[in-house]
Every structure is written in structure tokens, then in C-alpha cells.
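Appendix C reproduces, verbatim, an entry submitted by the partner laboratory led by Prof. M.T., so that reviewers can inspect both the input and the predicted structure.
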Amino acid sequence: MSHDSPPTESLTDHTVSLGTADPAASLPERGPLRDRLADAAVVGLGEATHGTREFFELKGQFIRHMVAELDCRLVALEANFPETLAVNEYIVHGEGDPEAALDGIYFWTWNVEAVRDLIEWLRAFNAERPPDDRVRFHGVDVQYTTGAVDRLRDFLREADPALLDRVDPDLATVDGRGVPAHQDEDASDAAAAATELVPRLRDRIRENREAYVRATSERDAAFAERFVTVIDRATDYRVAVREWDAAGAPEDDLPSRALYIRDKAMAENAAWLLERTPTERIALWAHDSHLNRVGRRRRTEIAGPSAGTRLAERYGEEYLAVGFSFGGGEFQAIAPTEDADDERTLRRVSVPRSETGAFDDALGATGHAVAFLDVRGALADGERELADWLGHPCRTFETGVTYDPSTPEDALTEYRYAEAFDAVYYVDSTTRARPLSSDSNE
């Protein structure tokens, strides 16, 4: 058997047809999908692109089941922790506007109907439940400092206004003002200020914890300390990205350092949230490259441990890594416009089946429109040919926020699926995620 030619019959035997990506649909009553969830504490729900409607809807279906049937009370997203607090306020207390909250987290990827609909479902689920039994919704990312700076100012204004007066200039210096890291010309100045500011704030909050709790609350004090950590991690990340962007050399170790900082922080934040939330499970929504078990790779030898690598080390078999694959279709991404190669915009792009990878082709050969591959179960069953195929590098289509349709080969990534994922969702034909804003091109 060629490693490029999977044992289709065995692969089909371990692939369950789901019929639909509709988030309101129930999971199959019996089978590997429910079985894998039963023992999982951390469920990493990936995506092969950041702009595929069906991926988002399937994750909504998955999360609804975890919340309603398995008492999961924590959903986390690849977005900045402080900025997602507005979304959490709406989900937990019904305060604010969900679309405005989504618009405030900087990520066009989540500013779509499918995410908004999940937020509305979580709010409806929480509405009649006691406060301690409501689902919480938080971000785990550390790409920005602005939200943490704003939230710290609010906290210190109430808990320690004298300290705020002393540290406010440094807070202003570390504030990235919502600018993406590669555009932050002041990242070095921010890093210098953070070197003194972070330990100063962290020590002060710990030393005055009881007084701060009395002035605010236990939650506010804990979050304030976490905001300091976000500033620390985000500043390091932003400096690494700026240096990477300035160097322009993919063989340099700067890209790996940036990925290392960010993914380490994402795993730390997920574990921290799970420890302080009254639940035994967390549903973690991010890209496949963040959540696989084996590490991050981008087109070249640039590599680093993924958040999933660290979560797998920490939680073992209680970490469930769910990847995503598709046969072809549409999604949205930042891509060159059709009339000017040097101009990029958020728009609809498409990938024909001939440009996806061998792994995607293999799942397409099972004949299902929407399906779930139980990788862990296939390996446990001991079918040698299938295990061998899953254990060898296999290409799949995977891209992040940017994509150039003129070079689809750049979006092909290799995984040893036996090591990288415990399960994979497959969608045969995809469509673009539907933006809430009308600003993006069709």
C-alpha cells in the first residue's frame, strides 16, 4: 500500500456520517463522537481556515452538546482575554450588545453570523440558570495589550488610585492601541516599560490582595493579575513579531520565537481559566495549527510547540484534539484583489478539489458530505494498514488569516494524524463564513 493511497474501506469504517453541519442538529445517539467527549477535560476544536461557515457551525453543534449534555461551563476562543470580557458579560448577565462585543475583539474571523448565533444560544441557555451554573466565555490569546491596559486602569481607579497615578505613564507606553503587532513601531519602547511595570504591578496586587478584594471582588483581583500577565506575554510577542517582520528571513529563529510565546500563553490561559471556573470541561476554539498535539509549522521549517502540545502534556488523554478538513469550496481570507496583486482585502476565495491535500482527498473518497473521523479509535482497533497510513506524513490544506489563490501549494501542511489529532471533522464542500459587517468584499 502506498502511503498516499489509504485503505479506503478501513478509513470509511472509522468515519461517521453526520449528515449536516447545522449547529442545532444533535450528535449521533451512539458512536465515537459521544464516546470521545465523555472522558475529555479539554476539547480543542480546530479549523483548517479562519473563514469557513461549516467549520464554525460544526463547532457550534459540538459546543451545544458539551454544554447541554456534559455540563461544560467554559468556552474559550482564539481571541484576546480582556477584549472578550464584553462577550462574557452578555452571555452570563445579558448585558451589552453581542455584535458590538464581537466587533470589539479586533478579529474579523469571529465577527460572523455563526459565532454570533452561538453566543445567542449560550445566552439563552444561561438565562434561567443560577449564576454559578452559567457558561462562561473567554479569550485565551495575547496579541494585544490595549484591553488589558484599559481594564487595569478601571481596576486600579477603584482599588488603588494612588498607584494608578504613578504607573499610568508606563501603562500608556505599553498600550499598543489595538494596532497589529507587525505594525507596532513602538514595540521596543513598550517592552522596556513593561520590564519594570509588570513585576511592580504583579507584586503590588499580590501584596495588597485582601485590600483589593474588599475594594472590588475576588474575581476582579484575580483578573487584574491576569491582565498584568497578558501585558507581559503580549509585549514579548509583539517585539518578536516586529523583529521577524523587519528581518524578513524565514530561516531565522524569530518566527519560531513568536509562535512559541503566543502558543505557550494560550495554553497557560486555557489552564488558568479551567482551574478557576466551576466546571470539569473547557471547549477551546482556535485554528488547527494551535490545537494539534505535535506543534506548529508554516510552509517552511519554521516550527514551535503548539498550545495543543502543551495541553496534551498537561492533560494527557483528557485532552482531545479535533482537527478539520475539507474537500474544496469557499472561505473568507485576506487575499490579493483580482485587479491588483499588491493590494489585499478580506474577501471570498475558493479552492478546487485539485488543490487540497491527500488527506482531504482520502476523506472525500468515503462519500460523506459531513463526517467525523475517529483517529483514536482507528488506532486502538489495531488495523495495521490504516494505522500505518495515519502514522505517516500526509498533506492537508490549511491557511490562516491570509491566502493567495495564485499559490495554493503554500497552504499545504503535513501532519502525522496518528500523532497530531484524536479526531477530524470533514466537510466535502464549504462556503464562506457570513460576516456581520457589510464592509467585506463578496
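The chain is about 45% helix and 15% strand. Additional entries are available on request from the coordinating office.
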